[in-house]
Specification:
The protein has helices at 13-24, 186-236, 242-257, 263-294, 357-362, and strands at residues 49-53, 58-60, 72-74, 79-86, 89-93, 99-103, 107-110, 114-117, 121-122, 143-144, 148-155, 158-162, 168-172, 176-181, 310-322, 330-336, 339-345, 366-377, 380-389. It has four domains: 38-96 and 165-184, SH3 Domains (SH3 type barrels, Roll), CATH 2.30.30; 99-162, no CATH class; 208-294; 310-389, OB fold (Dihydrolipoamide Acetyltransferase, E2P), CATH 2.40.50. The chain is elongated and about 95 Å long. Strand 18 and strand 19 (380-389) form a beta hairpin. The protein is built from five helices and 19 strands. The longest helix is centred in the middle third of the chain and has 51 residues, at 186-236. The protein is an alpha+beta fold and 390 residues long.
């Protein structure tokens, strides 16, 4: 008796291919993998043409479809370079000033104002991913390894850069009037691209100003802390050097890290550091004297003290120098020939009306008369002001 052989169903080749394709596709957020392009993009791209925007606040988008967050908005009369045509849409070169975010781990700094792409093909996203929210859309075109992008600012593990020329974005064709081939409108196109150069310079200046402001605030805070420590050291009148060295090292580290701080703040920080070093030298001298006393030796002769009060008449510019977290937040400083010279303070027994530092600071350079108190603040001698004159 022959057993009937029952046929075994084997999955079709098409099913196997579908399964393999599903498992082989990269995740949507992958930074270093190509994104499948729509069929329309496989068509040969026409020669670039020049167009003019007709309409107010016309949205420019990531893809040739409505919806989603616009990449930019263009006003009536703006010139665009048309790179391709789709049904109802035009692919145009990204306008000047469009900012995009890239993952910081895929770029390396190039100087202070740019980064270089290290990935083979890197996404340019319209925002920084936030936990619990959809990943922001990316522009259709990716940048290749070695591309240098102008840096705008850093945000966590991401950096904001200006989208490079030649990157495609999309706009509805009903808002664009075509002028003709780019080769026939070079002057118009050059004028439009000059705006990009101006925008790059503006962004670089804004980044430097922002970095200088943040760096200056950090250095001012460290300066205030160091000044407080110096006051404490003088009150304690100790001979232990370790706390002073610790404060000096902390201040020097902050000065080194805050190289972008304004010059005025750096000069004040250096003056405070000099005062801390003087305190360290005094403690070393006291220690030597204490050792000599214990050994029954003669203590080294001390230098005669400088006069504590000195009449001063000097001309300069008055500026308010802030020190966050210290006293009332800062001091008025007299600058002479672009160098901080004295910290200005009022004292008792002054004639009325009292000198007005704020008013004189707004009125330009002035003559300051007073006496030196023998104290130091910000590493500068304190001048007890008696009068101010133009």
């Amino acid at each position: 008796m022959n057993d009937r052989i029952r046929p075994v169903r084997v999955p079709g080749l098409g099913s196997i291919c579908v399964l393999l394709l599903v498992f082989a596709l990269p995740p949507a957020w992958a930074e270093d993998e190509p994104v499948p392009a729509p069929a329309a993009e496989d068509e040969a791209r026409p020669a670039p043409t020049v167009g003019v925007i007709q309409g107010s606040r016309v949205n420019v988008r990531v893809g040739p479809r409505p919806g989603g967050r616009p990449v930019a908005q263009l006003d009536d009369g703006a010139v665009v370079l048309i790179l391709g045509k789709y049904t109802g849409w035009l692919a145009i070169e990204v306008p000047a000033g469009v900012l995009v975010a890239v993952a910081q781990k895929y770029v390396k700094p190039v100087g202070a104002d740019a980064v270089r792409v290290e990935a083979s093909r890197l996404n340019l996203r319209v925002g920084v991913p936030q936990e619990g929210r959809p990943v922001p859309a990316a522009l259709r075109d990716r940048v290749v390894r070695g591309t240098v992008l102008p840096l705008v600012r850093r945000e966590g593990d991401w950096v904001w850069v200006m989208a490079p020329e030649g990157t495609r974005v999309f706009i509805s064709d009903k808002y664009v009037r075509e002028l003709g081939p780019a080769s026939e409108h070079k002057a118009i196109l050059a004028a439009a691209r000059a705006q990009r150069t101006d925008q790059l310079a503006l962004l670089a200046r804004q980044r430097r100003e922002r970095a200088a402001r943040l760096s200056g605030e950090k250095l001012r805070a460290a300066l205030g802390e160091a000044q407080q420590s110096l006051y404490r050291f003088r009150i304690e009148r100790g001979i232990t050097r370790a706390p002073v060295v610790e404060v000096i090292n902390a201040l020097e580290s902050t000065i080194e890290a805050c190289r972008e701080s304004p010059v005025a703040v750096r000069k004040l920080a250096l003056a405070v550091r000099q005062d801390l070093e003087s305190e360290l030298e005094l403690r070393m001298a006291r220690k030597d004297a204490e050792v000599a006393r214990l050994r029954g030796l003669e203590a080294p002769a001390e230098k005669p003290a400088a006069p504590r009060i000195e009449q001063v008449l000097v001309r300069g510019s008055i500026r308010w120098e802030a020190a966050p977290g210290w006293r009332n937040g800062g001091e008025w400083v007299l600058w002479v020939a672009d160098e901080p010279r004295y910290v200005l303070q009022l004292t008792t027994g002054l004639p009325h009306p009292l000198p007005n530092f704020k008013a004189r600071a707004a009125g330009g350079p002035c003559a300051v008369e007073g006496r030196q108190s023998g104290q130091r603040v910000f590493g500068l001698p304190v001048l007890e002001v008696r009068s101010l004159a133009k």
